[in-house]
């Protein structure tokens, strides 16, 4: 007769062997049996390239409001770039209705606080172990709400990420909800009215992981000067925030480059750990600059044996983006990915042919 305790020991032993999570290569895969702690039930998706590097990098790519892991996978260039440089991509998928990220609750704005940021950090740690990743190549990027989360992840998990690129977001902590709301919209911040000194913004970052004294990720901040969803002042305040963190003078860039990386984009370097790219005439959001991202992350020009370069023409179009600013007032038509409604919205509410206006929350609808 088998004693129960022996049987359960046997079963748990078997479990340890029977659970080598298999992630199929070269397609978007949902990871359902990772065993990580996932306090807010964030969707866990990955792209593992065919040409996986021996010690791969890890890139977290965070979608926008109304987006999903699937939408950001097909609408951004990271999977294509993963095949080229051998890194794995984590695409988290928001669990909230409207699929914005929770960048407002104390839980998400705190290291190991049990919010969305915590769930994503746990995915990163899992991927590092599973793929024997190079921890000096762990990066995060995102668009809009995903850019807000990018700043939050850089602030809450500074030990994990080496660099971060935010496309059209707000400073870390700017969307905080005074009443502790989860996944709350903050109009004061969105409209560019949350103004603070570099020191005050830096303290917001430091208080998300109190006592941390180690290195922090280097930051690249993109914003469109014609952004009517997250007003351009959020660019200036984000630059102030990270200048405060790194001890740079936000009013005196060390280098200013005009029409870099493209016409009407202006790149300001404030020190080795901070660059801002302000895009004149560009609305919400700035299109993902895949090749530039690879340079900032240190993949391009690196010795990581890249496979054959991506076939020209197969690169997925950069999205969710609209380089045409929304034409304010009635009668205008919002292009795909532009805002088309929400409280206080005075821009166009009609979407260009081929896209429809989809509500993310009371403050934000987008043409998709
Ligand atoms: C919005 O965020 C600001 C900081 O950016 C904060 O001071 C304010 O209390 C927040 N508003 C609400 C309604 O929570
Ligand atoms: C924000 O920064 C940009 C780029 O340096 C600058 O052109 C703009 O005047 C600044 N806006 C404010 C309100 O300081």
From TrEMBL:
SMART domains from the UniProt entry: fCBD
Name any GO cellular component annotation.
extracellular region
Please give one Gene Ontology molecular function term for this protein: carboxylic ester hydrolase activity
Alphabetic keyword roster: Carbohydrate metabolism, Glycoprotein, Hydrolase, Polysaccharide degradation, Secreted, Serine esterase, Signal
Enzyme group, top EC level? Answer: hydrolase
Where is the CBM1 domain positioned along the sequence?
332-368
One Pfam entry for this protein is Esterase_PHB
Q: Which SUPFAM superfamilies match?
A: alpha/beta-Hydrolases
Q: Which family does it belong to?
A: Belongs to the carbohydrate esterase 1 (CE1) family.
Name of protein = Carboxylic ester hydrolase
């Amino acid at each position: 007769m088998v004693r129960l305790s022996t049987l359960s020991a046997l079963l748990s032993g078997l479990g340890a062997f029977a659970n080598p999570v298999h992630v199929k290569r070269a397609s978007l895969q949902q990871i359902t049996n990772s065993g990580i702690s996932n306090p807010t039930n964030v969707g866990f998706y990955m792209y593992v390239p065919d040409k996986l590097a021996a010690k791969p990098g890890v890139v977290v790519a965070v979608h926008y409001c109304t987006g999903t892991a699937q939408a950001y996978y097909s609408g951004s260039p990271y999977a294509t770039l993963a095949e080229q440089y051998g890194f794995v991509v984590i695409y988290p998928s928001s669990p909230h209705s409207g699929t914005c990220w929770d960048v407002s609750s104390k839980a998400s704005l705190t290291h190991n606080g049990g919010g969305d940021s915590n769930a994503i950090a746990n995915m990163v740690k899992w991927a590092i172990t599973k793929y024997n990743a190079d921890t000096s190549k762990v990066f995060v990027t995102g668009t809009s709400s995903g850019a807000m989360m990018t700043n939050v992840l850089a602030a809450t998990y500074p030990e994990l990420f080496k660099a971060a690129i935010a496309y059209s977001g707000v400073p870390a902590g700017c969307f905080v909800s005074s009443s502790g709301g989860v996944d709350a919209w903050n109009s004061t911040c969105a409209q560019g009215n949350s103004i603070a000194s570099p020191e005050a913004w830096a303290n917001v970052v430091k208080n998300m992981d109190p006592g941390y004294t180690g290195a922090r990720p280097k930051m690249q901040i993109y914003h469109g000067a014609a952004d009517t969803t997250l007003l351009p002042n959020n660019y200036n305040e984000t630059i102030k925030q990270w200048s405060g963190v790194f001890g740079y003078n936000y009013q005196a860039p060390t280098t200013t480059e005009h029409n870099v990386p493209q016409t009407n984009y202006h790149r300001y370097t404030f020190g080795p750990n901070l660059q801002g790219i302000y895009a004149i005439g560009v609305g919400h959001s700035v299109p993902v600059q895949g090749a530039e991202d690879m340079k900032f992350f240190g993949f391009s020009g690196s010795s990581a044996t890249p496979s054959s370069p991506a076939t020209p023409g197969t690169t997925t179009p950069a999205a969710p983006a609209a380089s045409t600013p929304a034409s304010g007032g009635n009668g205008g038509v919002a292009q795909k990915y532009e805002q088309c409604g929400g409280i206080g919205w005075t821009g166009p509410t009609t979407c260009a042919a081929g896209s429809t206006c989809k509500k993310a929350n009371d403050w934000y609808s987008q043409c998709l």
